[in-house]
Design brief:
Pfam families: DUF4232. It comes from Streptomyces glaucescens. The chain has about 180 residues and is mainly beta. It folds into two domains: about 40 residues, no CATH class; about 130 residues, Immunoglobulin-like (Sandwich). It contains one helix and 13 strands; from the N terminus they run H-E-E-E-E-E-E-E-E-E-E-E-E-E. The strands form three sheets. Strands 2-3-8-13-6-5-10-11 form an eight-stranded mixed sheet, with no helix packed on it. A three-stranded mixed sheet has the order 1-4-7, with no helix packed on it. Strands 9-12 form a two-stranded antiparallel sheet. The longest helix is centred in the N-terminal third of the chain and has 13 residues.
């Protein structure tokens, strides 16, 4: 008979009894309070999310920086997951311009029922009517890997353009507000 040190045996018992997967979490499977793990949360669907635009820190003049925060609330029956960056497009008439993601790492997150996540569109205001400005009227966004989009009006001024019609704008990864 082999004798195992007490600390290894005790640690194995604690992990077994707690249902821990060894990484300090429950493997992302959530639970129903009964001790049973639920099915892994699937990707969030835009149709199950409430959308609110604001707060907005609009750029007051050409060359100034502004931020538009979009809050998504999970109105579905179960938790869902998001990973990556929203796909954001600025539209002015028939002209559209995709917004590039920030240079940041996006992490996978679970959004509980009635939980919220946000993303922020940062932009440089352009001069109205200038050749290197886009007179944005609408913003369209979608979730990573999904085809459904949501659109909202833009009333925060023209957006400056870099060469090639690329907007001086970026979009943050999804983030969970503190306390959520």
């Amino acid at each position: 008979m082999r004798v195992m040190p007490l600390t290894v045996t005790a640690l194995a018992a604690v992990l077994l009894l707690s249902g821990c997967d060894g990484d300090g979490g429950d493997g992302g499977n959530g639970g129903d309070g009964s001790g049973r793990k639920g099915a892994a949360a699937g990707p969030c669907a835009l149709g199950a999310l409430g959308v609110a635009v604001g707060p907005v820190d609009a750029a007051p003049a050409a060359g100034d920086l502004g931020n538009v925060t979009v809050t998504l609330t999970n109105r579905g029956d179960t938790a869902c997951t998001l990973q990556g960056f929203p796909d954001v497009t600025l539209a002015a008439g028939s002209t559209t311009a995709a917004v590039n993601p920030q240079e940041a790492t996006a992490r996978r997150m679970s959004v509980p029922r009635e939980g919220t996540v946000t993303f922020t569109i940062g932009y440089t205001r352009g001069a109205a009517g200038a050749e290197r400005s886009l007179a944005v009227e609408r913003v369209r966004f979608g979730l990573p890997g999904a085809t459904q989009t949501h659109e909202f009006p833009w009333s925060y001024g023209a957006v400056a353009l870099r060469g090639g019609g690329v907007p001086e704008a970026s979009v943050s990864p999804f983030q969970q507000p503190a306390g959520d």
